[in-house]
């Protein structure tokens, strides 16, 4: 089953699948589904890896002590919204 994703959501979903060696197709990731636990099933180590690849790819730092992390990593949609707001245009 494929989900309607924005271009950035498709790009980030592909990045997640590649970085974490997930056995799902990027277009099967529901933008509204939780990334952590139920949903995509990521754990805290996965989230650290996601933060690293997002930082490298989009040119801004995701900090582990950010109080907004629960919201930022809540779903593919919230993660891509955060990236769109904070990314370095040159990245």
Question: Mind explaining what this structure looks like?
Answer:
It is a single chain. This protein has 91 residues and is mainly α. The protein has a single domain, classed as ACP-like (Non-ribosomal Peptide Synthetase Peptidyl Carrier Protein, Chain A, Orthogonal Bundle), CATH 1.10.1200. Helices cover 48% and strands 0% of the residues. The protein has helices at 7-20, 44-58, 69-72, 76-86. The longest helix has 15 residues, at 44-58. The radius of gyration is 12 Å and the shape is globular. The model has no long low-confidence stretch (mean pLDDT 92).
Stated plainly, the CATH topology is called Non-ribosomal Peptide Synthetase Peptidyl Carrier Protein, Chain A
Q: How many domains make up the coordinates?
A: 1
Number of separate strands: 0
CATH architecture: Orthogonal Bundle
Approximate helicity band? 40-55%
Low-confidence stretches: none
The secondary-structure class comes to mainly alpha
Task: Give the helix tally.
Answer: 4
Query: By CATH's scheme, which homologous superfamily applies?
Result: ACP-like
Task: Kindly estimate the percentage of residues that lie in beta strands according to DSSP.
Answer: under 5%
Kindly, what is the distance between the CA atoms of the first and last residues, rounded to a whole number of angstroms? 31 Å
Q: Specify Rg, calculated over alpha carbons.
A: 12 Å
> What is the average of the pLDDT values?
92
CATH classification, class level: Mainly Alpha
Outline: globular
Main beta sheet, described?
A: none
Q: How are helices and strands ordered from N to C?
A: HHHH
């Amino acid at each position: 089953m494929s989900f309607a994703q924005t271009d950035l959501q498709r790009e980030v979903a592909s990045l997640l699948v590649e970085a974490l060696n997930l056995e799902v197709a990027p277009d099967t990731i529901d933008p509204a589904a939780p990334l952590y636990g139920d949903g995509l099933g990521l754990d805290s180590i996965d989230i650290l890896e996601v933060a690293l690849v997002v930082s490298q790819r989009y040119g801004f730092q995701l900090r582990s002590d950010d109080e907004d992390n629960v919201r930022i990593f809540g779903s593919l949609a919230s993660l891509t919204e955060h990236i769109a707001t904070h990314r370095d245009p040159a990245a």
